[in-house]
Amino acid sequence: MNGLNQQFNGLWTYRSYKNDTATLNPDTPLGDLLFGMGDIEIVDSAVNELHGRIFGSGWELNLNGYKTFGNPNEVRFQGRGIVGGHQWVYDYVAYLINDWPDGVDQVPALVGSIVRTIPHPNSSGGINPAGEVASWIAVKQKC
């Protein structure tokens, strides 16, 4: 595989945050903005393909999509899985942040957006609706 493809492969620490203007102010605790958290594992695949998984405690989605190399490099993928007996489907887009010329100890980071593609039950007995959008970041873990 070429070097460009390799920059996406590996384990990433993932966090997503609600795009909620009602609570997006300096006094809102960061935990109240959390949409999701876990890890993303991107595995070696064809140059423009993306495969892997996103997972956390008690859930896992299989990832399939593609990579586009440019300025910046982009990933688009869909996560699908059965969680608690219900299908979950989310769509993701992200951009690999370019290194700063004078940056110190930079770690690769993805920054993007996520949308819940289909509704699914939540842990409090309600339904998480389709169409909810959040912002996300992932930082590559050192191997």
Kindly provide the radius of gyration, computed on alpha-carbon positions and rounded to a whole number of angstroms: 16 Å
CATH architecture: Beta Barrel
Give the averaged pLDDT, no decimals: 92
**Approximate strand percentage:** over 45%
- How many helices? The count is 2
Spatial shape: globular
Biggest sheet overview? 8 strands, antiparallel, barrel
Number of domains: 1
CATH superfamily: Avidin-like
Q: Are there runs of 5+ residues with pLDDT below 50, and where?
A: none
* CATH class designation: Mainly Beta
Structural class: mainly beta
Order of helices and strands: HEHEEEEEEEEE
Distance between the termini: 18 Å
Helix content: under 10%
- Write the CATH fold name: Lipocalin
Main β-sheet, spatial strand arrangement? 1-2-3-4-5-6-7-10
Describe this protein's structure:
The relative contact order is 0.20. The protein is built from two helices and ten strands. The chain has helices at 3-6, 30-33, and strands at 10-18, 34-43, 49-56, 59-68, 74-83, 86-96, 109-116, 120-121, 127-128, 133-140. The two termini are 18 Å apart. It has an eight-stranded antiparallel barrel with strand order 1-2-3-4-5-6-7-10. It has a two-stranded antiparallel sheet with strand order 8-9. Helix content is 6%, strand content 55%.
